[in-house]
Amino acid sequence: MLESVLGAINLGTIVLDHARRVVVWNHWMSQYSGLPADSVVGQDFFALFPELNGKRIDSAVRQALRDNFPSVLSQTLHKAPFALFANDGARAAGERMQQAVAVTPLDVPGLARHCLIQITDVSVAVTRERLLRDQALELRSQTFSDGLTGIANRRHFDVAMEKEMRRAKRSGTPLSLLMIDIDSFKPYNDHYGHQQGDDTLIKVAHALAAMLQRPADLIARYGGEEFAVILPEMTPDHSQVLAEKMRERIAALGIPHAKAELTGYVTVSIGLATHALEHPSDIAVLLGEADRALYMAKGAGRNRVVRFSAV
User: Fold this and answer.
1) Which residues form the PAS domain (predicted)?
2) DSSP strand pairing (268-275 vs 305-307)
3) Could you say which of 225, 226, 261, 278 is catalytic?
């Protein structure tokens, strides 16, 4: 009866005696380890599996036999301690079954303490968890990305701006902000249609994003045809140089714009403001200053960079 029960249990069952010899090795273990019970029973467990010596399973068995202390191995830290394989293909590829392992002391009347090792196949659960994690990352990516251009969206910008402003104030480093607007974009849309307008937004976004080389720099779609660029640890002078290069890069695309009175092609206007020790501000103030500089660039004829000045 006991043999039938052990054979029907859908998890690995091993019992070790006080000398760590195998006294029970059920059918599940034989199936997935490839080792029949008669080749294992009676053998010193850690002589049979020397790769487990000194590992967490070793200490768990010692604690169970010596201290009557049960253990559950962390599945995160010990994903596959036993050489168990779901099938011959997995064995050939060396892809071990994902395992959850519990070690329990057993007090047997008239005998020295034994311990029970139970092994559960959690491969399906691990795969499901990995899939859910990947889906969550994908959803997070979509949540923080603009659906049209693929760059950061307004929500991503807000989170990044708050983080960088805290860092700038803590470290005493400058934080520059560019507000960029495509010139005369409504007339462009009216003339060429929204499909071409969207294509132009994508081209401009990608061209601007390609100008950013540092990991912490961020460009986001701030509004319809407006973009915002966060430049941590960048001085006003260096930010203005980059802004000029961005302006020139968009002009160099040569995208026709029949309604652009002065140029005949798509251009951008850029407003620049900087938080620094000598000119401290908060997020709302910095945004307001960059927006006013952008308004001044528009009013001065468009296709230019204006740096905010408090004087």
Assistant:
1) 1-68
2) parallel
3) 225
